[in-house]
Amino acid sequence: MQSGSPSFGTPESAVRLLCTGQIARHYNLPFRGGGALTSSQVVDAQAGYESMMSLWPTFLAGTNFVMHSAGWLESALTSCYEKFVVDSSSCACCTRVFKPLVIDEEALAYSAASGGRPGRPFLGAAHTLERFRECFYRPLVSSTENYRAWRGTAATRRDAREEHLEDRR
Question: Are the C-beta atoms of residues 91 and 56 closer than 8 Å to each other?
């Protein structure tokens, strides 16, 4: 209201999404909402937290159709490939968070727990070996390595890039 330009990722926009989602469910209507919206001009911390302030209520509101879910900057005046990649990762995380939980003997790994010896890890159990590749979300963009491993990976990428540039000369 102070400038007349739209702002996204604010507490007010989150409350609006949640309220309109409730109205849509009350009247049994489909609900279209926004996605990873931000007022930031660049891909930075502001873009990240505002986008999540838009995405979380979009998912919580039970939105049926999400428009503009990735790549927006500057209150929809700009789009950006880097932001698209980051937003795609955020959407994947939200999809995983809001996936309904399955609670049964198989999901709770009763067979792995009952088959092991006391004080022994379940890492070698058949249940674990069948599921370890898919059971935890693997980030699309972010790193989960410790600092030393991350630095080594970054150095390897830098060296490969420098070799490529040298070969082109």
Answer: no
Residue of 24, 101, 8 lying closest to 56 (CA atoms) = 8
CB 53 within 8 A of CB 11: yes
Q: And the tokens for 122?
A: 């379940």
Task: Please report how many Cα atoms fall inside a 13 Å half-sphere around the Cα of residue 165, on the Cβ side.
Answer: 6
Side-chain half-sphere exposure of 43, counting CA atoms within 13 A: 12
Q: Count of CB atoms within 10 A of residue 96's CB?
A: 10
DSSP per-residue codes, 95-133: HHHTSPPP-STTTTTHHHHHHSPTT--STTSHHHHHHTT
Bridge pairing between strands 32-34 and 65-67: parallel
**pTM, two decimal places:** 0.75
Segment 138-162, tens digit of pLDDT? 887 888 888 888 788 766 766 666 7
